[in-house]
Amino acid sequence: MGHWLERNIVEPGKLPLLLALTAFVLTFLITRVVTRMIRAGKGPFGNVKAGGMHIHHVVPGVVLTVVGGFGAVASGQSGFGAGLCAVLFGMGAGLVLDEFALILHLDDVYWTEAGRKSVEVVVLTAALVGLVLLGFLPFGVNDLSDEDIQNRGGAMLSVGVNFFFSLLALSKGKARTAIFGVIVPFVALLGALRLARPGSLWAKRFYGRRPRARSRSTLRAYRHDRRWAGPRRRIQDLIGGKPDPAPARTPVSR
């Protein structure tokens, strides 16, 4: 374990990234525990207010992110300063992305159905950074041999090809597959080869005069969403808390 940590984390200079990821995940989890306790009216916690205005935790998150980011640039890539700045940056990013939905909608949607987007973005970010730490990023290893240099050239070519397939997957409405495909080989290829989702750029461009392809695309998307929507929602509820039920709409009298 020590050798693996030295070779794959310390030697390539990824220790600050590990610290940032740890701080990011812990900050998000602690923040969700606190906000759920506030929501339930338990514990000594409460909303932070100034002059009667609710201060969302995205505000200190932005401050920590700025301080950690600029501090990392100023301190270099090693030493105590770099580690401290990485922790500050991770904490700030955790607070900011925990309210990603608020930033996206410019509205307090934290406990609404739209607020699920924050949990999804946090999980996606943590997964991508985790993949980088596990060595899926083919750059940044010191003391390369001639064989390593040749492998690096092949890895760079592979990343370029994967990025091309990621663009195809993105055009087919498969954003998650496209994002992971930049890092994990062949993931984007699967998304690029499969049918596009209805309403995607690819479907609008190439399925307009192909009713059979349109119907297959719609059926596959329906089956996929029906299979995975329930488990995905349960995991999001477990991590971030269950959203408030949507208010019933009052019928408009005519």
From TrEMBL:
Residues 234-254 are annotated as: Disordered. The chain crosses the membrane at residues 15-34, 55-74, 80-106, 118-141, 153-170, 177-196. Signal peptide: none annotated. Keywords: Membrane, Transmembrane, Transmembrane helix. This is Integral membrane protein.
